[in-house]
Amino acid sequence: MKEYAPACERNSQVILNVLQRILAHSRTVLEIGSGTGQHAVFFANGLPHLQWQPTNKESLESINAWRGEAEFENVLPAKSMDLLAGTDHQYLRLPEIDAIVCINTVHIMAWQGTEKLFELAASAISPGGVLYLYGPYRYADRPLEPSNENFDLWLKERDPLSGIRDFEAVNRLAGLAGFELQEDLAMPANNRSIWWSKR
Ligand SMILES: C[S@@+](CC[C@H](N)C(=O)[O-])C[C@H]1O[C@@H](n2cnc3c(N)ncnc32)[C@H](O)[C@@H]1O
Description:
Elements (H helix, E strand, L loop, with lengths): L5 H17 L5 E5 L5 H9 L4 E6 L4 H7 L11 E2 L16 E7 L7 H14 E11 L1 E2 L7 H13 L6 E2 H10 L2 E9 L3 E8 L1
Parallel strand pairs: 1-2, 1-4, 2-3, 4-5, 6-7
Antiparallel strand pairs: 5-9, 8-9
């Protein structure tokens, strides 16, 4: 059964606007933490040249239900992916991965999940490929916005290992994994679109 996340309805178009620019030359995209599957279908419809591989830690049922709405049949069946359980991407059987897209997931997982994400990106993304993250971030040179401060407290009450990540720490991981920062864009509701390319 198709599930709906209200946040997806609000952010899909603004994220697609960025992805259409930065994934113009990509062919295969691995999405980590696909959630309901709404994003996978929305982005695949707006980027018909891509083959989109959704993955999720939890149930894949909703993603596969949404797949039927991919106008160009360019969404692959969802695969199970728990970054805290390992990063063996071979089973995904993609010929190669040109990009990884991970939306509103880095602050949900324990920090080790982000480390694993960059390990996976280092081994799976082809040179010149893209790693795109969307969500709220904390910056050393300014206080967290009040809405994100509240969100961070709420996250930590649910799971003390979760929480809004430091941009500088994430960017450091990216550098160590062989990625170069390309853009860090302000998005609605105090979110960021951050993307790196593989050297
Ligand atoms: C807030 S939801 C975001 C879903 C979707 N990207 C969106 O923006 O609507 C967080 C996602 O993180 C995923 N997730 C949580 N822990 C994970 C882990 N250890 N490895 C991979 N994904 C994880 C969940 O399955 C879920 O899809």
